[in-house]
Every structure is written in C-alpha cells, then in structure tokens.
Amino acid sequence: MKHRILGVINLIHENDELGPLTQGRCLATVPFGAKYRLIDFALSSMVNSGISKVAVFAHTKYRSLMDHLGSGKHWDLQHRQSGLFILPPLTDDLLEVSRGDLYHFYQQRDYFNRSSLDYIVIARSHMVCNIDFERVLAYHQEQDADITVVCKEHDGPVLGKSRKVKLDADGRVTEIQEHFGRLESNISSMEMYIMRKDLLMDLVETSLAQGQDHLVRHAIFSRLGQLRVFGYRHEGYLGVVNTLASYYQHSMNLLDQDVWKELFFMPGPVYTKVKDEPPTRYAAGSRVTGSLIANGCRIEGTVENSVIFRGVHVEKGAVVKDSIIMQNGYVGQGSFVQYSIMDKDVRVEAGRDIRGAGASPFMAAKRKII
Amino acid sequence: MVRKEMIAMLLAGGEGKRLGVLTKDLAKPAVYFGGKYRIIDFTLSNCAHSGIDTVGVLTQYQPLELNRYLGIGSPWGLDRRDGGMTILPPYVKQKGGVWYKGTANAIYQNMAFIERYNPEYVLVISGDHIYKMDYDLMLQHHKRSGADVTIAGLQVDWKEASRFGVMHVDDEDRITAFEEKPKNPTSNIASMGVYIFTWKTLQKHLIYDEANRNSSHDFGKDIIPAMMREGRKLHAFPFKGYWKDVGTIESLWEANMDLLAEEPPLDLYDTEWRIYSVNPNRPAQFTSAEAVVTSSVVSEGCVIEGEVDRSVLFYGVQAEVGSIISESVIMPNVRIGKGARIYRSIIGEGAVIQAGAVIGTPEDDAITVVAVEQYVTNDHMVLEVEPT
After folding, report:
1. pLDDT tens across A80-96, in order?
2. E-strand spans in B300-356?
3. Is the sign of the CA dihedral B215, B221, B223, B229 positive or negative?
C-alpha cells in the first residue's frame, strides 16, 4: 500500500515552561518515560501510521535533537527516497529566527513542493500520545474537511497548557482559543493538523502576504468561517507536557499499568534511539515496587513509585520514592529522595535527604552534585 | 579491494546438540544468554572492540533465525562499505555442493572470500563461547613472536581439562605439545578455540588437509597437530578472565547464574566494553506494587507482579500476581500466570505457563527445561502455543 501523507514535526515556538529541563535542550528532547524523548511519541505515531517522510522543523537548542535523531534509522526513517529531514531555520538574519512558523515553512517551501505526497500532518513534540494518523485522514475525508484538528475531550482538569476548542454537533470547529482564553470547553487541541499540502502552501503564501506568520493563530483561527475545520476526537491517553507540574504528573501516570500499556503499545510501539545497555541488576536486598525501570540500572536500595531512566545506580540503603531519576543518575548509600526530578548525570552523595512536595517537586539540573 | 591486515572467520554452524529442545530450531550461537543477548553477541562485540571490521560468519545448522538476527551486522558496527559482515553458508558449486565437513573445511571452502581481502593474518573464532577479549592484543603477541599460529589458552580446572584441547608451553609461551581432548591430561592450559594464523601458512595447511582422506578437517584434531608435526611455530596467548562454553543445559544455566553473583565474573556493565546486540524495542520494565525482585537481572518490557529471586528475565516477560520465579532463566516473551511457581528451570522463548502451574523443584539439582512456545497447564500437560 502506498501512503500519501507527509509528516511535519513543528518545533518552532513550542510553548515550554519546563525550566531547568530545557536549559540546554529543546522541549522535543526532554527525557520522558524512563528511556524516551518527547519527540519519540509523535515520530513513532507517524511511522506506525505508514508515514515514511518526516520533516522536523528544528528551531533553537537543537544539538540534542540532532544527536537523538541521527539518520532516523531507529525510527526506520533511513530510506533511499524518503526518510527523516531535519530542517533548522533557513535565514540570513538571526532576527528572523524568531519569526513565526509560517515564515519558516515558506523558507523551506522547496521541501514541500518537491514532494509528491498529497496530504500533510503537522504535529508538535509535547503532546505525548500514541495515535494512528490513517484514522485521522479517513475522518478528514469522511467529513470532506479542509483541515482536521486532533482534539482530546478531558474528564477532569487538563495538566499542561493547551488551546481550547469548541465543536458543534457535527464535529466542526467553531472556536479555538489560547489556553488562557475564557472559552468554556473540556476539549483541547492536540496541535495536530491534517490538510492537503496545496492548502498549506496557499495558507503560507496568503498569510505571509498579509504580514501574518503564525499557522494556528493567523492561518487557522481567522479562517474558521471560510474553511471547513473539523475536530477528530482522540480516544487514547494524552499527556500535554509543557509545564514542570504536567511533566511530573504525566511521568507518574505511567506507573498505572493501563496507561503504560496504552501509551507504549497501542496502536503501535514507541521507538527511540537505541543504547546498548545491559539488563538491570537487582541486588540481594533491593526492594522495588510500583516503578518503571529502564535497562542498565543497578538497584541495591529501595525504589517506590518512581521512574528510573537508563544506567541509574541506587546504592544500598538508599530510598527513592515518588521521583524521576534520569540517565546515569546516582543515589548514594543511605540517601533519601522523594518528590524529586533529577536530570541526567545528577549525583546524590551518600546520606543526603532530599524532599520536594507532591505539587512542586524538587528539581536538580543536569550534572548537579548534591 | 582495500587490503586488510587481519580479518575474522567466525564459526557459527554449531548444532549445540546437548542443549536439547533449546536448539531444536536454532543454531547454538543464536541461543539466548544474560537477559538480553545471544551467545554470538560476545564474539562479535569482541571484534568490534578489537578494531576488526571484516568478519565472515560461517553458518550451517538451522541458519534462519541466526541470519535474521545478524542482518547486515549494523548492531556490531559491521555494516561497512569495505568489508563488514558477510554470511557464508555452504553453497552449490559447478561440481555440486557439500556441507562444511569440519571447522577447517569450512574455512577451506571460503578461501576465495579470504583472498578478496588479501589479509596477512586470519583470526578464527567460534560463536559458541562467552568471554570478553581484545584480539588486537593477541595479534600484537602473534606479530612479536613471529609465530605461524597463536592459540589463546586458559588455565582450567584439572578435572575439566580432558574436555578441551590442551597445550604444553615453554617459558616463552611456545607450544611444545598439543593434545585434543586427552583422557589423562598432562597440562591444564586449554585452547579456547581462538586462533590467529599467518594466512599464507594456514592456506597451505588447509590445502594439504583437504587432500588428506583420513582427516576430519578440524582445527583441533587435524590442522594444529599437522602444524606441530611439521615444526611450525605455535604460540600460546595466555588469557585471564571469564570464558565459558555453554554447551549443555547445566552450563547455560550456570553461566546465567554467574551474572547474579555479588561481583559477577563477567562484567556486562563496563561502558568501555559494551556488549552490542540487536536491541528489542520495548518500554522500560514495569514492577507493580506487589512485586518483589531480588538478586536478579531483568530486561526491558517485563511486567512483574510476582516474586523474582536469583533469576534472569529476558525482555517482555510477564509474571502475574502471586507467581514465584526462583533460580531460573526466563527467555523472551514468556507469560507466567497467577500463582505459577518456577524453580531451577530454563523457560524457552514465548512459552506460556498457566496460572497455578509448578515447574521444577527448589530441592532438585536437575534443571527443568520448557521448550520454545510451549503451553504448560497446571496439571503438567505440555501443549504447543497457538499462534496468535
């Protein structure tokens, strides 16, 4: 079967309130779920939907992105004719880097024009989910829509910041507002848009000609009257991960086995850059419960209700509770760590006592020694 | 073609008869080990860390799974433009084809492959052994001594010596005598089946040996003794460290259990010498609130809700609430039902153990084996797993 969708992961001006976690990296490469980076979810969903050509519009702090994505091989995106394209800003003047996404799409218009694919899916990196875009396309065609926005209907309050959407009885989008808007709706936008490529190129050119350069705010918000914009309801799990509180809570949600299964297996697996880590070793006196643990760890102490990334060492007598310890972290003998997020290579020396609060976890920046 | 100083020929056709049901559809080098690996990963990783970029892998017995696993050698950095990994099965020639008759004959049949690279030296290794070794140090030793062949040697227990080819060496590591599997060994320096030959010399011997109708065309039994007889220069390269031939169910189980020691003799956590393998794509392992995991090695994608003690769990194993796994090796994607108990066992890939089933006993010395994709019910019926 031949596929017709071109994928775009749009990292331009992604709303990011992750503080120290994005000090040296872009939001797309924030580690998540014990071995992944945020971008893996959108990228894997695209690949599992049969999309074999994906452009990542890099914006700022993208060294970690280049390192993570490499040739795209780990997502099976290293092909002769298609595959992965990383497109950093193409500008003469550094001031232009801060212009909106439509400007950057325009700069890279050759990339779109060269492709023979009819449809385009644009996604962000901070919407953690597992979704089949073929189904979104089928819905798009059924509705005879110009643009389809993937939405999520929430039961409770939404963690993280997302735009609010109002749909009419037919599923047509009647209003979109920023997260701070007054619109009362329990439906939020997942910032995933599907449309024909020609329409996108039209929107890019007409908007820029009018001095507007933001895809959602300018090209879509203002045309809800003229264009048939529909909302596709995503039924699966969604984590809007763009604030520290939502990062922490969505990490903790993975400790629910149903969420773990849904996010990592359905409808397809999630891929990431491969590391040759050995399996994890549990020592004689270790106690591990209710946790998610990656390979390459050495657990000699107690780990409860926590997310442990690759290559972490928890020494004898150490206790890690309700925390997230990223790659190559070290928790020394007898230390106690609770409600904390430890970035990569953080070293907690022996005998320390670190406690954050559930609502505002303690945060240690990369390579910090405590 | 770019000339290579040394290329490796990796013998991977082993049938592994004594591994019983575990090698029914699988060549021995493809047998699982250590929660994540297959046995052949160790020799291939050794090649990668020793700067060897050209490896011929000689396959024969049940090659399907092994070929699929090796692919084009990318996990071991062997997808190269010049050289890289080449799988060398026996093939049909103009006058008909023959199986590899022995280890030496396998190399003989692939002389054309070796000649393409015109190497000075050829490293002959086997995909059946678990060890970490820098072949480059051995090559330097070989060049310094100017030997025709250098054989890696390991001191083994005297009572085990008769299982191996044993060597007598002088003060300068020159081999003065070599006996293949002697009844009454007079030395305990065992050959590890790791040889570096000066290619021109080996080539001559392979040709002589091929013409000899009485030969079994084996390195240990024929080529090395013939080189001794002709007064060639044979050297031993002393190796210290972990080396294991996992030829039997017991030794495979033991080698896995070795990883659980307080200070394991084989360090898989050395970042300078990572063991490369095909990484399965699985999320991190999930341990539930009821789980108890002690003294074990557990891989990604496992869901553990029961008790695991002194065991090795490969990726994707599900152990439900109330299950007990003790002193066992559980291969990938095994499902263990509620309250099932497994003691001193090896459970083959994809097997399903029904809730309440009991496999093995904690007291018995013998190791119980459940074959690949078998369904074990709680009244000890063994069925084939229905394909899903």
Report:
1. 777 999 998 888 888 88
2. 303-304, 307-309, 312-313, 318-319, 324-326, 329-330, 335-336, 341-343, 345-347, 352-353
3. negative
CATH 2.160.10.10 fits B286-376, yes or no: yes
Superfamily of domain B6-260: Spore Coat Polysaccharide Biosynthesis Protein SpsA; Chain A (3.90.550.10)
Give the integer Cα–Cα distance in Å for A200 and B305.
49
Q: Distance between CA atoms of A294 and B150, rounded to whole angstroms?
A: 42
CA dihedral B376, B381, B384, B385 (to 10 degrees): -40
Which pair of structure tokens corresponds to residue B196?
A: 């570096």
User: How close does chain A come to B321, measured CA to CA in Å?
Assistant: 13
Tally the residues of chain B.
388
User: How far off is chain A from B31, nearest CA to CA, in Å?
Assistant: 17
Does A78 touch chain B if contact means CB atoms closer than 8 Å?
no
What CATH superfamily is the domain A5-265? Spore Coat Polysaccharide Biosynthesis Protein SpsA; Chain A (3.90.550.10)
Indicate yes or no: CB of B35 within 8 angstroms of CB of A278: yes
State the complex-level ipTM.
0.88
B313 to A285: CB separation less than 8 angstroms, yes or no: no
Q: What is the pTM of this model?
A: 0.90
The residue assigned the tokens 């294991």 is: B244
- Considering chain B, tell me which residue range(s) the CATH 2.160.10.10 domain(s) occupy: 286-376
Token readout for B57 is: 């892998």
Tell me: the pLDDT tens digits for A121-134?
999 999 999 999 99
Nearest-Cα residue of chain A relative to residue B281: A271
Strands B149-155 vs B234-238: parallel, antiparallel or unpaired = parallel
Q: Which residues of A touch B312 (CB under 8 A)?
A: 279
Q: Where are the domains of chain A?
A: 5-265, 281-364
What's the pLDDT band for B268 if we cut at 50, 70, 90?
A: very high
What is the rounded distance in angstroms from the CA atom of residue A190 to the CA atom of residue B168? 73
**CATH fold of A281-364, please?**
UDP N-Acetylglucosamine Acyltransferase; domain 1 (2.160.10)
From A275's Cα to the closest Cα of chain B, the distance in A is 8
Helix axes B40-49, B63-70, angle to 10 degrees: 30
Neighbour count for residue B360 (Cβ, 10 Å): 21
Q: Using a CB–CB cutoff of 8 Å, tell me whether A270 touches chain B.
A: yes
Kindly determine whether residue B281 and residue A269, on different chains, have CB atoms separated by under 8 Å: yes
Structure tokens, B162: 């008769």
Alpha carbon of A306 to those of A20, A243, A312, B93: distances in Å? 20, 19, 12, 60
Chain B contact for A115 (CB, 8 A cutoff) = no
